[in-house]
Write a structure and sequence with these properties.
The chain is α+β, with helices and mostly antiparallel strands. It contains two helices and twelve strands.
Length: 149
């Protein structure tokens, strides 16, 4: 039996196989289901990493608890991607974003995902920050409504 190497295949067959492979990859990526998707509303401007998000309705999508989250305004304008997070065990209660308030600045720190058993932390608090902010009442939560599948 003679072995045919890819280098000896006709150009048209190579192009066809390349297009077929690309189609399969893109189809799988397009049909991939996120591990988490939800919606939330900010009544005020919020800082998330380097991004500043104005008040409004947003959606969040996560393909992995270890990867960046995609935040998209309901208006459909361009998405914001978060930095790579760290994870911890989820807190009791519902699905919510944790924000800290320092002066007039609100900053997203984490999202609690009890259905996945994880809390996804984008900007960790030190123990002293946690104690100081908690005493001053400067840690808030914003509920996230889980998107229906």
């Amino acid at each position: 039996m003679k072995t045919v190497r890819a280098t000896h295949l006709p150009v048209s067959l190579k192009l066809f196989l390349g297009a077929l492979l690309a189609t399969c990859v893109f189809t799988l990526a397009a049909n991939a289901q996120p591990i988490f998707a939800g919606k939330f509303t900010w009544p005020y401007e919020v800082h998330w990493g380097q991004a500043v998000l104005p008040a409004g309705d947003y959606s969040i999508r996560m393909d992995s608890v270890a990867g960046p989250a995609m935040i998209r305004p309901a208006s459909g304008s361009s998405a914001v991607y978060t930095q790579f997070p760290i994870t911890a065990d989820s807190e009791k209660g519902g699905t919510y974003l944790t924000l800290t308030i320092q002066g007039n600045e609100r900053r997203v720190r984490s999202v609690n995902l009890p259905a996945l058993g994880k809390s996804v932390i984008f900007t960790p608090l030190t123990k002293s920050e946690r104690e100081t902010l908690a005493k001053a009442g400067e840690i808030n939560t914003v509920p996230v409504v889980t998107a229906e599948k």
